[in-house]
Sequence to fold (87 residues):
Amino acid sequence: MISNDVDIETISKLVEIIYLDHVLFRNLKSTDITPSLRKTIGWITKQNKDAVWLIWDKPIHKAENEIDDNASGLVILRDTIKEMIEL
Fold:
């Protein structure tokens, strides 16, 4: 598991996160719908007690620990994270 403190060492490592994702539904019986268990892999760019910011795509010409301001990724609420593993 990764701590709440993020440093260059943590940012430069890949992580795999398994989490429960929200589900949007329409015209279905609401009691039959459950959160979806998902998995993503990427670099942590920020985290706090409530959430983890993860990018999964970045330019290859950037240094391994350099963060791109225009990245693609997710903000995942900590309460939904089931497992987080450094790769």
